[in-house]
Amino acid sequence: MEQNLTAKMEMLMTALDQVRKYKEIVASMADFAVITALSIATALAFLMLAKFGVLFGWFNPWDGIAGLLALLTVIVLVGGVVFAGFWVNRRVRHVKVGQWKPTLEEGAPGAIKLLQELNWENIFKDIRRAKMGFTIYGLTRVFISWLIIAVVLNFAAGFLSSIVHVAEINLTLTMDLLSVVIAVFINRKDLQKRYEQVGNLDALLWELRWFDNEFRRADFET
Questions:
Q1: Can you give the pLDDT at residue 55?
Q2: In total, how many domains does the chain have?
Q3: Which residues 6+ apart lie within 8 Å of 214 measured at CB?
Q4: pLDDT (tens place) for every residue of the chain, 222 residues total
Q5: 206, burial (CB in 10 Å: exposed 0-12, middle 13-18, buried 19+)
Q6: Which of 3, 32, 197, 207 is most buried, taking the most CB atoms under 10 A from its CB?
Q7: Strand, coil or helix: what is 59?
Q8: pLDDT for position 58
Q9: Which residues span the domain enclosing 93?
Q10: Does 158 lie in the same domain as 170?
Q11: By the 8 A CB rule, do 40 and 76 touch?
């Protein structure tokens, strides 16, 4: 009985540590958005400069300047997204976990002590918040991937239209649709992973509600 209680409490506290990490993802979304927005704005500035430079004859598409601006557009976009992701992961890695282990080493009395210290209402709120943030973060990754691919393909479409005289608007629509397909394809494993983790959070929420009901009825004495 004591070993069973300790084992279940270890599973519970380990899951709650994971929720803390998910919470940190939510908290870091503001940083992610600012870094990504700055990289997008800078990349768009390079892209518009390249387009207007070709359009108004400041330079021709083949003198290297337009190509350099296109390369800078991709570098800034990719670099900004990579740095934003690194920043989020860095914050998540610094979340303190496992601080409950010394208490749980006491056995059943330690497990009961941990249970008594849990704020169930806050835990339920944290899980709901973590679910929302984890989903938003996954969708944001897909959006950023689409944006990077769309910029690259549309820039290529602009040069292609000037060579083969195809209507640029038709190429733009085609490239936008193609970029959506590519973005979803390259993120398919990440989307599946996040879908499963959101499902795990749902299961944890139900388990915690069960724990809450059970231990409210029980009269534990240490």
A1: 58
A2: 2
A3: none
A4: 567 667 777 877 887 888 888 888 888 888 888 888 898 888 888 877 777 665 555 656 555 676 677 778 778 888 888 898 889 889 888 888 888 888 888 887 887 788 778 787 888 888 887 777 777 777 877 887 887 788 777 767 766 666 665 555 566 677 778 888 888 888 888 778 777 777 777 776 677 677 666 666 655 444
A5: exposed
A6: 32
A7: coil
A8: 60
A9: 1-118
A10: yes
A11: no
Spatial distance between the Cα atoms of 215 and 200, rounded to a whole number of angstroms:
22
Q: Which residues contact 70 (CB under 8 A, 6 or more apart)?
A: 46, 47, 50, 152, 155
Looking at the fold, whether 87 and 135 belong to one and the same domain comes out as no
11 vs 196: CA distance, rounded Å: 18
Which amino acid is located at 108 in the chain?
A: A
| Residue found under tokens 């929720």 | 19
Q: Per the structure block, which two tokens stand in for 142?
A: 């897909």
How many helices (H) and strands (E) in the chain?
7, 0
Is 23:212 a contact under the CB 8 Å cutoff?
no
Place of tokens 């610094």: 94
Q: Tell me: do 113 and 200 sit in the same domain.
A: no
Same domain for 179 and 169, yes or no, is yes
Q: Give the residue from 118, 141, 162 where a domain finishes.
A: 118
Look at residues 72, 90, 118 and tell me which one is the last residue of a structural domain. 118
Give the DSSP letter of residue 61.
T
CB contact at 8 A, 41 and 80? no
